[in-house]
Amino acid sequence: MTAKDISATRPEWLKKRISLNNNNISEIKQLLEDLKLNTVCQSAKCPNIFECFSKKTATFMLMGNICTRNCAFCGVASGKPEALDSSEPLNVAKAATSLNLKYIVLTSVTRDDLPDGGTRHFYDTVMSIHKFLPQSKIECLIPDFKGSITGLEHLLLSKPDVLNHNIETINKNYGLIRKHADYKRSLDVLKNTKKINNSIITKSGFMLGLGESIEEVKTLIYDLKDAYVDILTIGQYLRPSDNNYPVHKYYTPEEFDEIREFADSLGFKYVVAGPYVRSSYQARDAFVASTS
Q: Can you tell me the distance from the alpha carbon of 199 to that of 122, in angstroms, rounded to the nearest whole number?
């Protein structure tokens, strides 16, 4: 599959204007530095970073900032990760407490080098947050853990409120865009989550602009519905750097609305779609809407 690179010609609707609180941005950056914590906001070059930091919120990225995989769309560095930081679960809880977060999103790099893929580290972090902030809600945005059901079961024992695993793109793209991942395995992560704990909210998301057709998008949405997904997020792929896969198409806000309406018609609890939608962006709003 080839794609025409239109990355440098962003349309008008992708020019985002927001009001920022620079004091909050400085405060959260200093907090993260002091506690030696990573965020996906920084490592993945998220376009919403300053908006979220300005509101004193962030998505904590566990287990370092070096991923063992090298997905063509992702801005996170790949290579040989460092050893796990045993103080990280406690430090994440301290940061969440300092920010007085009512809804905490945890994600991680993929750690194929670890025997359990990092499931115990996720578990320890969730349990630390429960101890410090027992009333706060927690969302775990996880890698596939190589499809390990045992690891998934262990993580779910910590009782997160939302289990999120992103499908990212259509099946056809996996060999090129996610060559070390597997489409069915990702769907099975979501299905197995519901089989283990049917009461948990499940969530997944994908990007548009990677060379997919509308029919392929609809097939993907059907597959996610069949995987018992409750919350669906759909956003525009924006190329993090010249080394990443090129943008094939910028979808208009109207096209996002049409795709969202199609997904809504299938009965998801909540669907959000738009150019700047990201899996953890305004995650608390999605959770509240899906449980109201």
A: 20
Q: Of the candidates 190, 238, 188, 292, which has an alpha carbon nearest to the alpha carbon of residue 49?
A: 238
| pTM summary value | 0.92
pLDDT tens string 27-44: 888 988 999 998 877 766
| pLDDT score recorded for residue 2 | 46
Which residue ranges in the chain fall short of pLDDT 70?
1-8, 16-21, 43-45, 47-48, 50
- How many CB atoms sit inside 10 A of residue 210's CB? 23
The answer to whether domain 20-291 has CATH 3.40.50.2300 is: no
The span from the CA of 2 to the CA of 245, in Å, is 10
Q: Are residues 232 and 274 in contact, defined by beta-carbon separation less than 8 angstroms?
A: no
* pLDDT score for 58: 82
